[in-house]
TrEMBL record:
This is PPM-type phosphatase domain-containing protein. SMART domains: PP2Cc. Residues 126-631 form the PPM-type phosphatase domain. Residues 1-18, 456-481 have a biased composition (Polar residues). Residues 30-43, 506-515 have a biased composition (Low complexity). Residues 525-536 have a biased composition (Basic and acidic residues). GO terms for molecular function: protein serine/threonine phosphatase activity. The lineage of its organism: Eukaryota, Fungi, Fungi incertae sedis, Chytridiomycota, Chytridiomycota incertae sedis. InterPro entries: PP2C, PPM-type-like_dom_sf, PPM-type_phosphatase-like_dom. Transmembrane segments: none annotated. It comes from Geranomyces variabilis. Residues 1-71, 456-484, 506-536, 575-596 are annotated as: Disordered.
C-alpha cells in the first residue's frame, strides 16, 4: 500500500512557486507491482515503481477514423497531443465505437445555483491518495497477489503534479484528478489516464469556460464525449493492429504455439475512468465505469453529508443496459448460464434499474467481424460502460464509452471533501446500498478531518506505538517497514505544506518586506511563532488526510485493529462524542486521547466504537485506490 499527500491552494500563486520542467506533458504512472501492502510514501519521497513513467507515443486521429462513420472532431482540440499509435490500416470489420442510440438526460440543471457568490477567495486544496494491491488469502495466513502488476492508475502523483500544472494547464486555479481501474491488464489504464489528462486539459484551455451558463455546460459535455470517443477508437485501433500482426505471424492457426508464432498474443483489456476537474467554483465530474466519486459538504449542525455521487455504470444501469440489449449483447450468470431479460420495446430506456441483473455478466456471441479481428469472444464483463475492451467495441459496438459529465457548484464559504475510489473500495463494504455507502464514507472521512491529533501513545501495555503518523503497531514485516518510513513521511508532509500552501502568515511577510525599515525583533519572533504554528496545523491536517485515505483501502480489520496512534484514539473519541444519545462504554478521556496515556484496553475499546467499513477475512480483495480531496474555505482576510 502506498500513500501520497499533497497540499496546495487553489490560487495562481501556487503555480508560480512550482519549478518548470522541460517536458510539459505527463506520462501515466506505472502501476504498483510490489507486495499487497508496501511502504507509505508522501510528497517527493515516493515509490519509484509507482511513479515509473512510460514514454508517450504520438497519436493521429486517422487511426481513430471509421470507414462507415464520419471522424469525430473536437473544436480547438489538439489531437496530436493524444497518446496513441501512428496511422495504421484499420480493417473494414472494425468501426469506431458508436454513440448510444439514446442520449442520456442529465440533471445538471437541477444542481445549478445562480446565487452562489463569486469564488473569492479560492479554496485551499489538500489531496491524498492511497492504494493497495489486490490479493487473496491462502493457507497459512499468507497473501497471494491476484495480478502481476497493480491495475489501478491515478494522476496526479506528487513528482509530476507541479510540472503538469505549471507547464500545461494555464487556467488559474484549475486542478485535475484522474483515476482508472483496469481489468485484464495495466496497458489500458495507463493509456487512458495519460490521454484523458491531455484531452480534458486541452478542452479547458481552448476557451474561457463559464459553467454557470447551461449552454456552456452542454458544449463542454459534447466536446468531452467526442474526446473520449477519439481516445477509445485510438486504443481499439491500436489493438486491432496488434491482433493483425499476431494473425499474420500464424497466431490464429489451430494448434500454433507461442514459441512457433514468435509473437505474444495481444491482451484485450480495458478500464474505468474518472476525471474530476476543480475550477472557478465548480467541480466537474467525468465518469465511465463503476468507479465512483462522492462530494461531501460540511453543515454547521449536522456535520458532513454527501451532496453528489456519480452513477455506477454497472449491470443495473437502465440506459446502459438498454443500449447493450439493443446492440446484441447477452447476459449470463457467473457460472455461464444465459439469462433472458425482458426489455421494453421502446426507444427510451426504462426509468427503473435492472435489479434482476445484479451480479450478472455481459457476453457477446462470436460474429464474423469478431473472428476477422482475432479477439477471443470468451471474455465476459460486469460493467455496462468501459474504455477499451476491443471485443465489445467491434461493430456494432455493444458497450459505450460515452461518459457522464456532471457539474457541482462550490460555495467558497463552505468546506467540501471529494472522495474518488475504485470498486475495490465500494464492493467490499459491509453496506451495499449506494446512498448509504456514500453517507458512511463521507462521514468517516469527515471524522478524520475534524479530529485533533495528539502525540503517539506510549503506555499501551507493552505494545510500542509505531510513529506519529498512525502506522500500525503490529510486528509483521509490512508494518515494520511502515514504521521505518514514517519519520521521513512526516517530514515530507511538512515540506509539501511549506511549498504548496499560502497561509495568512504569507501575506503578513509580504507586507513586512514592503516597509522601508526592518520590523522590530519582537515582531519577527511573533511571525516565526505564527509560521511554526501554521506549519504544525498544516502537518496535522495532512496526517489526518493520509489516515483517512489509508483506512479506505486497508480493508481487513486485522490490519489496523491494534493501531495505537493518538490520532486514531482522538478519532474514536470524537465519534463517541458525536453519538451523544447513545451509551459510551469504555470511553477514552480527553487527556488520554490528547497525550496517549491510558490503559491499552480503553484504547482498543475506543477504536472498537468505530464501526467496520468492510467485511474482514474474505478470500479475495481487488485492487483498491482512494483519492481524498479536501476543499477548505477561504476567508476575506486571506484574499487581501
Amino acid at each position: 500500500m502506498s500513500v501520497i499527500v499533497s497540499s496546495s491552494p487553489l490560487t495562481p500563486q501556487s503555480q508560480a512557486q512550482r519549478t518548470p520542467s522541460p517536458s510539459p506533458l505527463p506520462s501515466p504512472p506505472s502501476s504498483q507491482s510490489t507486495a499487497a501492502t508496501s511502504a507509505t510514501y508522501a510528497a517527493v519521497d515516493v515509490n519509484p515503481e509507482v511513479l515509473a513513467h512510460e514514454p508517450a507515443r504520438p497519436m493521429s486521429p486517422v487511426a481513430a477514423a471509421s470507414p462507415q462513420k464520419k471522424k469525430p472532431r473536437v473544436d480547438e482540440f489538439e489531437a496530436e497531443e493524444l497518446i496513441g499509435v501512428p496511422p495504421t490500416c484499420v480493417p473494414a470489420v472494425y468501426v469506431a465505437p458508436a454513440a448510444e442510440t439514446h442520449a442520456e438526460e442529465t440533471d445538471g440543471a437541477t444542481r445549478m445555483d445562480e446565487d452562489i457568490p463569486a469564488p473569492l477567495p479560492a479554496h485551499t486544496i489538500t489531496w491524498s491518495v492511497s492504494t493497495e494491491k489486490g490479493y487473496k488469502n491462502v493457507f497459512g495466513g499468507n497473501r497471494l497477489s491476484i495480478h502481476p502488476e497493480m491495475e489501478d492508475v491515478h494522476w496526479p502523483t506528487w513528482e509530476a503534479d507541479g510540472r503538469f500544472m505549471n507547464e500545461h494547464l494555464k487556467q488559474d486555479g484549475t486542478r485535475l484528478f484522474v483515476l482508472a481501474d483496469g481489468h485484464g491488464g495495466v496497458e489500458a489504464p495507463r493509456f487512458f489516464v495519460a490521454g484523458a489528462t491531455r484531452a480534458v486539459s486541452s478542452l479547458l484551455e481552448a476557451r474561457d469556460w463559464n459553467f454557470a451558463e447551461l449552454e456552456q455546460q452542454d458544449a463542454f459535455r459534447k466536446q468531452v464525449h467526442t474526446a473520449f470517443q477519439i481516445l477509445d477508437a485510438s486504443y481499439s485501433s491500436k489493438k486491432v493492429e496488434e491482433y493483425r500482426k499476431w494473425i499474420d505471424a500464424g497466431g490464429g492457426s489451430e494448434g500454433a504455439s507461442a514459441a512457433a508464432v514468435g509473437e505474444k498474443k495481444p491482451v484485450d483489456d480495458g478500464c474505468t475512468l474518472i476525471v474530476n476537474v476543480l475550477m472557478k467554483g465548480w467541480i466537474v465530474n467525468i465518469n465511465v465505469g463503476d468507479s465512483r466519486t462522492v462530494v461531501g459538504l460540511k453543515h454547521d449542525h449536522v456535520g458532513w453529508e454527501p451532496i453528489f455521487s456519480s452513477a455506477d455504470h454497472n449491470m443495473t444501469h437502465p440506459a446502459k443496459i438498454h443500449h447493450i440489449q439493443r446492440s446484441g449483447g447477452q447476459f449470463i450468470h457467473p457460472y455461464g448460464t444465459l439469462k433472458c431479460v425482458s426489455v421494453p420495446n421502446t426507444d427510451e430506456p426504462p426509468a427503473q434499474p435492472y435489479t434482476q441483473l445484479a451480479g450478472m455478466r455481459i457476453y457477446r456471441p462470436p460474429t464474423p467481424q469478431i473472428r476477422a479481428v482475432g479477439v477471443s469472444h470468451r471474455r465476459t464483463l460486469n460493467l455496462s460502460a468501459t474504455m477499451g475492451d476491443l471485443l465489445f467495441k467491434v461493430e456494432p459496438a455493444v458497450l459505450s464509452c460515452l461518459p457522464d459529465v456532471e457539474f457541482v457548484p462550490v460555495d467558497p464559504t463552505q468546506n467540501y471533501v471529494v472522495v474518488a475510489a475504485t470498486d475495490g473500495v465500494w464492493d467490499h463494504m459491509r453496506v451495499q446500498n449506494t446512498p448509504l455507502q456514500n453517507q458512511i464514507v463521507v462521514q468517516r472521512v469527515g471524522l478524520f478531518l475534524d479530529c485533533e491529533l495528539g502525540s503517539p501513545s506510549s503506555g499501551n501495555g507493552g505494545v510500542q506505538s509505531a510513529t506519529t503518523l498512525g502506522s500500525p503497531s503490529m510486528s509483521d514485516a509490512a508494518t515494520s517497514h511502515l514504521s521505518e518510513e514514517a519519520p521521513s513521511f512526516h517530514d515530507e508532509i511538512m515540506v509539501s505544506a511549506t511549498h504548496g500552501a499560502v497561509f495568512k502568515s504569507s501575506s503578513t511577510t509580504a507586507a513586512a518586506q514592503s516597509e522601508p525599515s526592518p520590523p522590530p525583533a519582537s515582531s519577527l519572533l511573533d511571525k516565526d511563532r505564527e509560521d511554526a504554528e501554521t506549519e504544525r496545523i498544516r502537518a496535522h491536517h495532512c496526517r489526518r488526510l493520509a489516515l483517512a485515505a489509508r483506512i479506505l483501502v486497508e480493508r481487513e480489520r486485522t490490519r489496523h485493529r491494534l493501531w495505537n496512534d493518538a490520532g486514531m484514539e482522538s478519532l474514536a473519541l470524537l465519534h463517541q462524542q458525536q453519538q451523544a444519545s447513545q451509551p459510551q462504554p469504555r470511553s477514552v478521556t480527553g487527556a488520554a486521547a490528547a497525550t496517549g496515556s491510558g490503559n491499552g484496553q480503553d484504547m482498543l475499546g475506543a477504536l472498537d466504537s468505530l464501526p467496520d467499513l468492510f467485511y474482514s477475512g474474505q478470500f479475495r480483495y481487488d485492487d483498491a485506490t482512494a483519492f481524498i480531496i479536501h476543499l477548505q474555505q477561504g476567508t476575506r482576510a486571506e484574499s487581501r
